[in-house]
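Figure 6 in text form: structure in, sequence out.
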């Protein structure tokens, strides 16, 4: 098929009626309300609810076109690298165009991803939903006047989004996965043809499907330009010192990056180029469940500030809204993954444009529920590459008796589903940039101390903030350190602002040192086993391998 020419022909035929190219923001909001795609809450934000299968991403329905000429660039061993054939993707595109031709209204938005115009990626989104168009207005950036300087200026990406239509399973039998929920072929696809620079979201109304598809695209394209994409938050001190915070859900990344003394560049997606750090996005896509206005006032205010609906435009997905329009963010009966999309401009302490110098400090966050990692430790270059590869944290799993035990979770680069290239590519880029810019790297444990979950206690946020401040200010560089031989970490013997240095030695906080050592060895063996399974045949630098716990 002749896509994108076929799409251009379709849009050209529809120009006279029913197609809206880059409509004003107020018009998209008005159309979303009039079309019952959303309702206005009491404070003026837009609330929407998706089908149950669209309350989160669908990793098994996220696919890449596999072509002989480019397949060597993708790590097909990754559990998230689901392949489809070019002719299957062409069939999906054909169905997209056929379905779009039946729509009374089509919205087209032209935005970019990347605040550094040297690598801003033009994104053309085509959809039948005003709310989806508004989502791209919240999350993707306006086209900069100097787009011509971008390495992608002549290589735009096109995204087709049909959230509420479904694929016909009989057309894809043997081509797409069998969905046990349906008892047959899946009717949803989040697909990328990275060679032809086309993406499709068909059958998923979850806003994160749009956001993360484009993030995955950036994470694939940027390394070839010498740019390291990172799943992280970033902020900047008054002296222009930039810090990056990487961590999986539940590690405190959002809380720790929202520092009133530091301007926020962004909360989720950034690139590190030869010019420094830049946010990819124009907005935030925040998790809402149990959002506390006292602990996270900035996010709460961004979503819940009072405004006329046509002037608001925050999109609230799948949260409890009562008939009077009030929100209950503690109610997770529909999903614990309620979300809100809003522009960064809704926050008070942000940097505009969200670009900064090379990071002075990087923090890897881990919520270790085993209680065996120190609350802070310093990482050398090879150690940093190892912990970047591993992306460790703990999750808690229930047992029949109600006692919980930590489950180790590893997500490479703290964003495994969105990093499809071979792991050595991202790790090498990090190592090269650390060498060139002398960036300090620390591992911060925001998990448990004095014992595992159920015995010990969660790290006090006040203590964590003191340790983070010591790392960001450079004060931790001037203290004595010891080497942890099991985890290959450099542990400080004291920290300015911490009155009791005992807390810095995790074994000293346990009542039973032998139990601590047993637990620590168990976690180290989990690291070693995971590394061997994921990277044992990936040609990782032996110096990095030697930094793996348990080796």
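Output sequence:
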């Amino acid at each position: 098929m002749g896509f994108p020419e076929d799409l251009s022909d379709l849009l050209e035929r529809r120009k006279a009626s029913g197609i809206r190219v880059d409509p004003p923001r107020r018009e998209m909001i008005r159309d979303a309300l009039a079309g019952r795609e959303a309702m206005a809450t009491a404070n003026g934000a837009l609330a929407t609810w998706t089908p149950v299968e669209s309350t989160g991403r669908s990793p098994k329905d996220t696919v890449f076109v596999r072509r002989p000429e480019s397949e060597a660039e993708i790590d097909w061993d990754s559990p998230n690298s689901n392949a489809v054939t070019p002719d299957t993707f062409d069939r999906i595109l054909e169905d997209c165009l056929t379905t779009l031709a039946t729509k009374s209204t089509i919205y087209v938005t032209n935005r970019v991803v990347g605040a550094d115009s040297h690598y801003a990626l033009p994104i053309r989104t085509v959809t039948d939903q005003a709310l989806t168009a508004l989502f791209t207005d919240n999350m993707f950036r306006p086209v900069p006047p100097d787009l011509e300087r971008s390495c992608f200026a002549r290589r735009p990406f096109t995204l087709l989004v049909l959230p509420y239509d479904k694929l016909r399973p009989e057309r894809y039998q043997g081509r797409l996965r069998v969905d046990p929920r349906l008892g047959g072929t899946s009717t949803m696809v989040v697909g990328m043809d990275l060679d032809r620079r086309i993406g499709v979201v068909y059958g998923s109304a979850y806003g994160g499907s749009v956001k993360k598809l484009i993030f995955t695209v950036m994470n694939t394209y940027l390394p070839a330009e010498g740019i390291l994409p990172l799943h992280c938050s970033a902020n900047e001190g008054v002296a222009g010192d930039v810090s990056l915070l990487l961590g999986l859900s539940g590690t405190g990344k959002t809380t720790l990056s929202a520092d009133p003394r530091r301007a926020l560049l962004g909360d989720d997606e950034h690139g590190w180029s030869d010019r420094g750090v830049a946010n990819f996005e124009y907005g935030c896509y925040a998790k809402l469940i149990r959002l506390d206005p006292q602990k996270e006032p900035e996010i709460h205010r961004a979503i819940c500030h009072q405004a006329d609906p046509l002037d608001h435009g925050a999109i609230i997905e799948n949260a409890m809204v009562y008939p009077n329009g009030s929100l209950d963010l503690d109610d997770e009966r529909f999903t614990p993954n309620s979300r809100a999309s809003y522009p960064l401009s809704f926050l008070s302490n942000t940097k505009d444009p969200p670009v900064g110098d090379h990071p002075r400090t990087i923090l890897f966050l881990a919520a270790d529920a085993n209680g065996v990692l120190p609350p802070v430790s310093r990482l050398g270059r090879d150690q940093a590459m190892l912990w970047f590869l591993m992306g460790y944290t703990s999750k808690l799993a229930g047992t029949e008796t109600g006692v919980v035990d930590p489950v180790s979770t590893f997500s490479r680069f703290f964003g495994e589903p969105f990093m499809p290239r071979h792991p050595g590519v991202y790790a090498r880029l990090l190592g090269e940039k650390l060498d060139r810019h002398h960036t300090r790297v620390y591992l911060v444990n925001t998990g448990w101390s004095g014992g595992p979950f159920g015995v010990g206690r969660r790290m006090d946020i006040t203590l964590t903030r003191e340790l983070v401040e010591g790392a960001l200010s450079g004060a931790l560089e001037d203290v004595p350190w010891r080497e942890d031989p099991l985890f290959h970490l450099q542990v400080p013997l004291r920290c300015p602002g911490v009155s009791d240095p005992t807390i810095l030695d995790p074994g000293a906080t346990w009542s039973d040192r032998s139990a601590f050592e047993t637990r620590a060895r168990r976690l180290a063996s989990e690291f070693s086993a995971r590394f061997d399974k994921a990277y044992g045949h990936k040609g990782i630098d032996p110096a990095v391998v030697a930094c793996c716990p348990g080796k």
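Caption detail: The longest helix spans residues 513-535.
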